[in-house]
C-alpha cells in the first residue's frame, strides 16, 4: 500500500511554507476575531468554545493540506485513523463522558467564565470551560481543574449569577442591652454604608437566646461586585459603634448571680495565714 509518491522540489517547499508560516498565524487572528465577535452577542464561555473549535478545525485542515503537498495518500491514512479512533474511544470512556458532560454544562449554563462558584469545598472564579474540564482559580491564587463529569454530578453554588447578593450577619449582644436601641444603631449603620442597597431594604430579625447573649440576624443587600466591601465595612462599623455607645458584645463566660439582683456576686481573695509550727501547742497523747 502506497502512502506517498512525490518528488521534493522548490515549489512544494514554498507551498508548505506558506501553509505553515502564514496559515497558522492567520488561524490565530481568526480565533481572536471569532472570540471577540461571539463575546459581544453571547456569554464569554461560548466565545471561548467557538474560537477553539474554529482554531482546531483550521489546524487540522492545514495539517491535511501539508500532508497532501508531500504526496500522502489520505484515503488509507484516514481509514487507519478511524480504526485507531474507535480503539481510543473504547479506552477513554472517562474522557468521552467529560466531553458529553461539557456539552450539557454549556447548554444548561449554570455558570459562565468570571463567575464565583462553590463546588464541594472549592470556592473560586471560573477561568475557563473546556472540552474535558472546568478550571477554577481559588482565592489563594491556585488553579483547580475539575472534570466536567464531576461538575455535572456535584452541587454547584453560583454566588454571582444574579446582580445583587444578601449578607446575613450574626450580631450578639448582652442580655442587659435594650434591643430597640441595638436595632436603631444597626439601622443607622446600614443607612450610612455606601455599599448597602436601600432596596431591597435591610432587615433585622431575632435569632436565638444563647447561653451568654441575645443573637440577632442583620440581613443586608449589595451589588455583587461590592459584596466583600459591604460585609467588611459593616462588621467594622458595628464594633466601632457598639464600643462608642457602650453596647456589650459578650463572649462565653460563667457569672454567679445572687438570685434576683443582676450584679455579680462580689468575691475577694484573702491571704492565708500560716501559723508558726513552733508556737503550736504540743500534741496530747
Automatic annotation (TrEMBL):
The keyword Membrane applies. This is Mechanosensitive ion channel. Belongs to the MscS (TC 1.A.23) family. It comes from Cyclonatronum proteinivorum. GO terms for molecular function: mechanosensitive monoatomic ion channel activity. PANTHER family: SMALL-CONDUCTANCE MECHANOSENSITIVE CHANNEL. Keywords: Cell membrane, Membrane, Transmembrane, Transmembrane helix. The lineage of its organism: Bacteria, Pseudomonadati, Balneolota, Balneolia, Balneolales. One of its GO terms (cellular component) is plasma membrane. Residues 169-249 form the Mechanosensitive ion channel MscS C-terminal domain. The keyword Isomerase does not apply. Its main location: membrane. It is found in: Cell membrane. Residues 52-93 form the Mechanosensitive ion channel transmembrane helices 2/3 domain. Residues 95-161 form the Mechanosensitive ion channel MscS domain. Pfam families: MS_channel_1st, MS_channel_2nd, MS_channel_3rd.
Amino acid at each position: 500500500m502506497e502512502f506517498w509518491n512525490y518528488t521534493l522540489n522548490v515549489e512544494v517547499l514554498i507551498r508548505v511554507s506558506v501553509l505553515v508560516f502564514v496559515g497558522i498565524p492567520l488561524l490565530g487572528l481568526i480565533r481572536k476575531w471569532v472570540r471577540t465577535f461571539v463575546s459581544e452577542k453571547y456569554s464569554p464561555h461560548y466565545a471561548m468554545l467557538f474560537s477553539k473549535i474554529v482554531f482546531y478545525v483550521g489546524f487540522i485542515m492545514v495539517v491535511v493540506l501539508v500532508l497532501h503537498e508531500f504526496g500522502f495518500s489520505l484515503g488509507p491514512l484516514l481509514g487507519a485513523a478511524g480504526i485507531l479512533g474507535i480503539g481510543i474511544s473504547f479506552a477513554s470512556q472517562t474522557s468521552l463522558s467529560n466531553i458529553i458532560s461539557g456539552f450539557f454544562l454549556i447548554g444548561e449554563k449554570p455558570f459562565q467564565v468570571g463567575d464565583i462558584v462553590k463546588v464541594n469545598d472549592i470556592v473560586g472564579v471560573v477561568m475557563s470551560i473546556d472540552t474535558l474540564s472546568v478550571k477554577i482559580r481559588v482565592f489563594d491564587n491556585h488553579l483547580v481543574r475539575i472534570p466536567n463529569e464531576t461538575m455535572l454530578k456535584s452541587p454547584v453554588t453560583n454566588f454571582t449569577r444574579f446582580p445583587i447578593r444578601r449578607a446575613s450577619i450574626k450580631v450578639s449582644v448582652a442580655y442587659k442591652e435594650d434591643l430597640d436601641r441595638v436595632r436603631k444603631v444597626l439601622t443607622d449603620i446600614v443607612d450610612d454604608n455606601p455599599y448597602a442597597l436601600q432596596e431591597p431594604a435591610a432587615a433585622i430579625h431575632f435569632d436565638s437566646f444563647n447561653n451568654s447573649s441575645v443573637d440577632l440576624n442583620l440581613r443586608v443587600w449589595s451589588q455583587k461586585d461590592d459584596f466583600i466591601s459591604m460585609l467588611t465595612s459593616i462588621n467594622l462599623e458595628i464594633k466601632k459603634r457598639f464600643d462608642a455607645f457602650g453596647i456589650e458584645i459578650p463572649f462565653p463566660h460563667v457569672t454567679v448571680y445572687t438570685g434576683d439582683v443582676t450584679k455579680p456576686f462580689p468575691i475577694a481573695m484573702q491571704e492565708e495565714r500560716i501559723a508558726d509550727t513552733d508556737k503550736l501547742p504540743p500534741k496530747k497523747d
